[in-house]
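Thread: quick sanity check before group meeting

JM: Hey all, I'm pulling together slides for Thursday and realized we never actually wrote out the predicted structure for the chain we discussed last week. Dropping the sequence here so it's in one place. If anyone has concerns about the input, flag it before I start.
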Amino acid sequence: MNSSEIKSQLKVTHTIYIALLSGLVIFFVLVIILIQNKNLKVNTELDKIFTLLIPVFGLVMMFTSRMIYNQMISKYDSGSSLLQKIGYYRTAKIVSWAMIEGACFITLVATILTTNYLYIAVFIFQIGYYLMIRPSGELLIKDMNLNSEESELILRK
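JM (edit): ok, ran it. Output follows.
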């Protein structure tokens, strides 16, 4: 197992993260353009429903994604190779990111349907959380409880 192979695996994880984040940002920009350029009528019935539902759903997804991530990380085989551990880490992260991404998309759809800018604030809060759970070598070491030899391979520049 060499350092370049490990770095490439970590780069794949980071690339997936950036791709998912980019999709959210592009959709956000499209939503802003859509609701800015049109005089859409505010749907007050939907807005009443979404005013409580969207923030609560976003928070529930944040907590649930963290809980599922922790469960997935705790179930990996500690005798696995470092590449397998990176794979477990990546899979757990992707599941976590997907849950947050789903909440973000629902928030943006609610923004389109109601043209309520409150949901943009909820989206920004969700994106802030998404940025906090980005992948890193340090988090991989901590979350996967890597030994010193594996940690050195991860952190080697």
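AS: nice. The chain has one domain: 3-155. DSSP finds six helices and no strands in the chain.
JM: adding both to the slides.
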